[in-house]
Amino acid sequence: MDEELARDYANCSTFCVVRDPLRRFVSEYFYISRHRRTPGPLCNQRMFEEYANATLQRLMEDPWIDDCHHVPQAYYLTSFTGRRLCDHIVRYKNLQEELSKVLKFYRDVDVRETKLPAGVNSVPGRCKLENLSVSEELQQRLRDFFHLDYELGL
């Protein structure tokens, strides 16, 4: 979104880590709930849907809420003029393998033996997206909001 920054990136080798938009949204729900000490079980469809509906409403008024954690990833991958800003796109679900390939491309660095953070949705004992029965209506609303991410195949 910042053309000056985009020009600076043109002089660098860059990579971006992207995540499935729905999983990213659920991860933000767990993060916010944990830090705000939301009472009750987090792995609860009703609580998640209330959060999601309220957040989507707020996003319609101000897409930059929550430290820009809900901004479509597509905004970070391309400039306003449509120029791609990332030389390499790393998918979060394959972080270890894909980041290793990117780093090996530039240097003989292999992170496959390095334990990288697994993320909130992968921590044993935590609620996972698969445990939430997200309604089809809400999934569609999230797909509509993050349509640019889905159009890019994220």
Question: What tags apply to this protein structure?
Answer:
154 residues; mainly alpha; two-stranded parallel ribbon; P-loop_NTPase; Carbohydrate sulfotransferase; Sulfotransferase
Q: What is the distance, rounded to the nearest whole angstrom, between the alpha carbons of the first and last residues?
A: 19 Å
The stretches of 5 or more residues where confidence is low (pLDDT under 50) are: 120-124
The run of helices and strands is HEHHHEHHH
Helix content: 40-55%
**How many strand units?**
2
Q: Reading side by side through the largest sheet, how are the strands ordered?
A: 1-2
Radius of gyration: 17 Å
Strand fraction? 5-15%
Structure report:
The chain has 154 residues and is mainly alpha-helical. The relative contact order is 0.21. Strands 1-2 form a two-stranded parallel ribbon. It is 45% helix and 5% strand. The model is unreliable at 120-124 (pLDDT under 50). Helix 3 runs parallel beside helix 6. It holds the Pfam family Sulfotransfer_2. It comes from Durusdinium trenchii. This is Carbohydrate sulfotransferase. InterPro entries: P-loop_NTPase, Sulfotransferase.
In short:
By secondary structure, the protein is mainly alpha-helical.
Fold blueprint:
Blueprint: H1 3-9, E1 15-18, H2 21-35, H3 45-61, H4 74-77, E2 88-91, H5 95-106, H6 136-145, H7 147-151
Parallel strand pairs: 1-2
